[in-house]
Structure formats: C-alpha cells, structure tokens
C-alpha cells in the first residue's frame, strides 16, 4: 500500500542541506587484521540507505557505499591474529600494565573524537537515526569510554595492595579471558558495540569485531584509529554474511568470550557452534518485550509522555522499548485518546529534519512484518486508533496504536521492534502480572501509579521477574553506570561501566605463605617493578 498522506514524503536530492549530504560514496576496501589495513578486491556488499530520494516522482533507493564481503578465508586470519596477539596471555597486550593499556585507549578516544561528524552523518544515512539521537549515541559512547577508564583506575587502585589472611599474603587482580568476538546490533551500532569492545580491550583481551548488517560504514572512519592506537592483532575486523564467516570462527574453539547483542535465536546458534561450552563465556543482550503497567490512579499526562518516548523513540527500535501497554479499564479510553493525540503530533521525516521523531526504517523486511502483525491484530478485534496509523511509504511507517489487544494476537507476545503500540485493557492487576510471569523475557517493566501500598506490592512481584523496575518512567538502559541486564531469554551477564570490566576478566591472585623467603621475593619483585601483575604501583 502506498499513501498520499503528507507526512509520508522523501526529499529530492536538492532538498537535502549540503551539511547532511554525503559528499561521495563510501566504498570501503579495507579491513583490519593484525595491525594492517588489508586491501580487498573481492566482492562487496552495497549499503542501501533507508532514506529514499525522490526523483521526478520516483523513489530511488540510495546506495551510499559498499564494504568488503569477506569469506571464511579472511575471517580465520582475523581469528589467528587475535589468538597470536593474546599468545596464551603472554602477548604484549595482555601483559601490559593497566596504566599503559589505559594510555592506548586514551589515544584511541582522542582520535575517535575527531571523527564525530563523519560517524554522526553515517548513523543518519545508514540506520535512519535522527540527528540529536545520532549525536547522543556518539557522545554517550565517548563518555562511556572515559568513564570506563576512570572505573578501571579505581578497580586497579583497590588491587594495588596485598591482603593477608591466615598467614597467606595475596594480591588479587582481574586478568583477561582471551579472545573476544564482539557483535553489536543495528539500532545502536556504535554504542552497543563499543560498550563491549572497549571494556574487553582495556582488560587485556584481544578482539575480533563484526559490525551488524546495518551500520557498517560508520565504523570505517575509526579503522585507522584502531590500527594506530593498539598493538598489532589486538583489534581485528571482519565484514560479510554473519552466517558464513562467524561459524568457522566459533567452531575453532578459540573464542573465549562471545559478546553479542541481538536475538536469542542467533545467540543460541552461535553458542552451539563452539565445541568447548565451558570455555566460552557469554555476554549477551537479547530479546525483550517490556511491559508498561498503568494503574487506575496513574498521572495520565505523565504516563502518556513516558509511554510515547518509551514506545516510539527511534521508531520503537530499542531493546528497552515499551512493547506492550496494560492499562486499567477505568482510564483506558482517556489514555488511548491522549496517547493517539501525542503520537499524531510526532513529526515524520528525514533524520536531519529538525524536531523529527519518525524516520525511515533500515531493515528491508520490517514494514511487511509490521503490516502482518497489525493485520493479524485487526482480524482478531483490535483497531488502529490514531490517524494515519499503520500507513507507510517504502521505509517510512506511521506508528500504529492498536487497541484493544488480547492474548490471541501475535503482537501480544512477539517483539515488534518497531512503531506499533499494543494496548491491553485490564480489570484485575493479576492479568498484567501473570503476563510478566509467563513472558519468555525479563528485561524491564514500567509501573505507573501513585498508591504506595499497591505500587510497593507490585514492585516486589516484579523485581524477581525483570532486572529493572521503572516507576512512572519509561524503560531505558541509562545512565550507563547502572547495571543493564535481563532475566530469562533477555540477557546473560551484566553491562554497566564497572560491571563490563568484570565480565571481560576473571579474578586472579598471586598468593604466598608469609615466610622470610617469600617476603624477600615479593618485596624485590614489587620494589624493582619486575612484574606487571604483582605490583603495588598506585594509579593516579
Ligand atoms: O537497544 C537497547 C539499548 O541498550 C537501549 O538503550 O534505553 O538507552 O535507549 P537506551
């Protein structure tokens, strides 16, 4: 279906301000392995922007560049380089002092900052993220790296002394785990990749990094910074079809940590490919179907505001998005009306347009999928309540507010990861509670209400089902110093600035019975600074 709705429009080339135009196609021909930017002359993958260009009444899919479509032949050398750089934990990087590793990361972040405008522009063109959110993704990532450095300094300070227990002196530090395979998602291709990659690196691991299918070129401006900031083989990049190049890497048994943000189905497949399940540690951010539970005494205006941003920021393409709203039947009509008014006020346009919230969607099969689940809900009794909801033009999709939704509809359980807002009326609080209990996912929930007794009882039920309970506020990951994780099929491991340092390392100690020989030995090693691990140096 096409729509003549005036909201659904793509620009002509001339209508795009020069400051947001890509001056030329970015045809990436290099990939980083073992400290060398290798030239690639083989097949490439074209990158098609979700932004269409209107050309004499025709909408043209805009090819903004291409990247190397590597094969197993190139993927395995990336693994070999990471294995060599780690060298059973004896490589230059894993044995380097924390202070020196921090200096490398500081060099990287200073080079990274120089590329802000290139990366922000590519975020807009590659995944359709609006300008303020693209800038925020870049700045938040830089801030995350800076905070990671500070968190590591503080961790190192507490490890710079010996503990003495039962006549045994020990120095306890965190040591790296080995080779880490980092794979981020398309919705936060920079931030969610770097929130695993940087802590993995700074703890002394070596890394193979594969960008998501959408959001590849934005990493290109940073490749030289990686090459110049780290010893050879510490950061290696692979590109291409994940289902072709990742299985041989996993099947080698040489990956020690899988850091993956994506679907639980893909994570399950990847884990099974590894022949040594106990050796493989996993740090996973997976599916979620976060519920908003709106009680009869909720402040409707605030709840509507939080539910709109919670459900529809970046077109609902956030793992933390509110993906189903349970509303008490006594207020549901007012809630739906106000929500629809708010959704109708959202501006639809190109990522660089001022004030825009609804932007083109990068996944080519997403709009057909949204149509399917909306039609399914309609066939089972739901209505699209907002004006123009569910109309679309190519990759632009006006959010659909669906009401009343029930358990027979696909949208009740499926994670839509897009601009569809399902609303379920309830009379008995046990209905949404039961939904959360039965859900396959357990990331977050948002509770809206004012009665302390009712809210407290609900909080206590929810905290053992999900990993973050938000009060009168949307679900979200940040601030990044807070732990971010999930139960059930939603996550493995916890990511926050400080937690990430822990998941990419293992507590390791050097211990000695306190006799004269050992005292003299340890004193000599620390005084003469003979060991990077056994050291009492204090990091300022
Ligand atoms: O897609 C999942 C992101 O981690 C969500 O982060 O809640 O800050 O948007 P956010």
What do we call the CATH topology of the largest domain?
Answer: Aldehyde Dehydrogenase, Chain A, domain 1
Shape: globular
CATH architecture of the largest domain: 3-Layer(aba) Sandwich
CATH superfamily of the largest domain: Aldehyde Dehydrogenase, Chain A, domain 1
Largest sheet: 7 strands, mixed
What distance separates the N and C termini?
62 Å
Poorly predicted spans: none
Q: From the structure provided, what is the oligomeric state, counting identical versus distinct chains?
A: single chain
Query: Taking strands numbered 1, 2, ... along the chain, how are they ordered across the largest sheet?
Result: 17-20-21-14-13-23-24
Question: Mean pLDDT score, rounded?
Answer: 97
CATH class of the largest domain: Alpha Beta
**Rg (CA only):** 25 Å
Percentage of β-strand residues: 15-25%
The helix-and-strand class reads alpha/beta
Q: Give the ligands present.
A: glyceraldehyde-3-phosphate
Tally of distinct domains? 2
The helix count comes to 16
Helix fraction bin: 25-40%
What is the count of β-strands?
A: 27
Could you explain the architecture of this structure?
The chain is an alpha/beta fold. It folds into two domains: 72-285, Aldehyde Dehydrogenase, Chain A, domain 1 (3-Layer(aba) Sandwich), CATH 3.40.605; 290-486, Aldehyde Dehydrogenase, Chain A, domain 2 (3-Layer(aba) Sandwich). Helix content is 36%, strand content 23%. It is built from 16 helices and 27 strands. A hairpin with a 2-residue loop joins strand 18 and strand 19 (396-397). It is globular. It starts with 25 loop residues before the first strand and ends in a 13-residue tail after the last helix. The structure holds glyceraldehyde-3-phosphate. Glyceraldehyde-3-phosphate binds at residues 187-188, 192, 318-320, 476-478.
